[in-house]
Design goal:
Number of helices: 19
Helix content: 55-70%
Number of domains: 3
CATH class of the largest domain: Mainly Alpha
Distance between the termini: 46 Å
Mean pLDDT: 82
Strand content: 5-15%
Structural class: alpha/beta
């Protein structure tokens, strides 16, 4: 069985003198190397001297056996790290494990998931890719924060998850910068405070839900700043494809909300429950979705979906993202009722049904 790399990083002892790693995220590979050296009592800053790296083609089975009999040139131990180990001729992990019980060498076999899956029956194997499940990703992020002596308030999880979309490198840099800033400004007392959503906003890390709602508010209100919002997102490194993907999901939720509201006898409250259940969003978000769906016509929702598909296709065709996104923004801008003077009844209705 292949286990997540987090299991290895949480361990306080070496699982075996021969272990396998399924190739994946470079940052996870770095963390595993550091932790492995720490378990072996070696200085992680001296990794180049402690880790002997070869490819599988360079190290057939007999050469690995010969290598583990040699004494290390430096220190009392070393790591023999074989990349693309599945390409090593006639390699036998079980024999390596049996022959490597009392040597000074720890063997790491890194390769493809298909091969390592078979080897996992003989040696411990860990996966170097971030997990797909949301709960597992949250554990990864919490563990990463702990690497810098930081803890996370529950309000900070969603902004980090949606902003970086599972990419651990930017999250690592964020925690490093927050840790350094806290040490410079507040010392140990501030370091113990959990990171909150409010603190993340100072680092320009906010939940995409919040960001999308701000865009939609700009459209509904006829606010020309809406167009500058697109530019701000792109300038801050937001991928056009990522933004379109988020809006696709938003419009899908509108369709669910509109469909629920069209059913006889359905109340806004029951529609909100259905959107929360089917869409997998918190009740508060579902409420905002339903309120906006009530204002949009069915035709406007369908036009929005078409515009998003068109923008996605135009981006993939190679057109400049700025032109595509401006066209999309202008189209979405026309789908909501035009802003302008409202009667007293319209104003009251707006207050009781605030836009997302």
């Amino acid at each position: 069985m292949i286990r997540p790399a987090l299991d290895f990083l949480k361990g306080d002892s070496l699982p075996a003198p021969v272990m396998g790693l399924v190739s994946g995220d470079p940052l996870l590979t770095l963390w595993v190397r550091r932790h492995l050296l720490g378990l072996l009592g070696m200085d992680p800053t001296q990794a180049e001297a402690s880790i002997d790296i070869h490819t599988g083609l360079e190290m057939p089975h007999y050469k690995i056996l010969s290598k583990i009999r040699e004494r290390p040139l430096f220190g009392s131990g070393r790591v023999l790290w074989i990349t693309k180990a599945d390409q090593a001729p006639e390699i036998n992990p079980e024999e390596l494990l049996n022959r490597n019980g009392r040597t000074h060498t720890t063997i790491v076999l890194e390769g493809s998931e298909k091969t390592l899956s078979n080897w996992s029956k003989k040696i411990p194997v860990f996966h170097l890719s971030p997990p797909a499940k949301t709960a597992d990703r949250e554990m990864w992020i919490a563990n990463l924060a702990g690497q810098y002596g930081l803890t996370l308030h529950k309000s900070a999880i969603d902004p980090i998850m949606t902003t970086f979309e599972g990419s651990l490198g930017p999250v690592d840099r964020l925690f490093r910068d927050i840790g350094q800033s806290r040490q410079e400004n507040g010392g140990k007392s501030q370091q113990k405070m959990a990171i909150t959503a409010e603190e993340l906003e100072h680092w320009e890390v906010t939940s995409h839900y919040k960001t999308v709602f701000e865009l939609i508010r700009g459209v509904e209100n006829g606010d020309r700043k809406f167009f500058r919002e697109w530019e701000r997102f792109l300038e801050n490194g937001q991928s056009p494809f990522g933004l379109i993907s988020l809006l696709h999901r938003q419009w899908k939720l509108y369709r669910i909300g509109k469909s629920c509201l069209s059913e006889p006898g359905v109340t806004p409250e029951s529609a909100e429950e259905t959107v929360a259940l089917i869409g997998g969003v918190p009740p508060k978000i579902a409420g905002l979705i339903v309120r906006t769906a009530r204002k949009l016509s069915r035709e406007s929702i369908l036009k929005g979906v078409d515009a998003l598909w068109e923008a996605d296709s135009l981006l993939k065709s190679g057109l400049p993202s700025s032109l595509v996104m401006d066209r999309l923004a202008a189209t979405l801008f026309t789908l909501f009722p035009a802003a302008g003077p409202r009667s007293a009844s319209e104003t009251d209705a707006k207050r009781t049904s605030s836009p997302v």
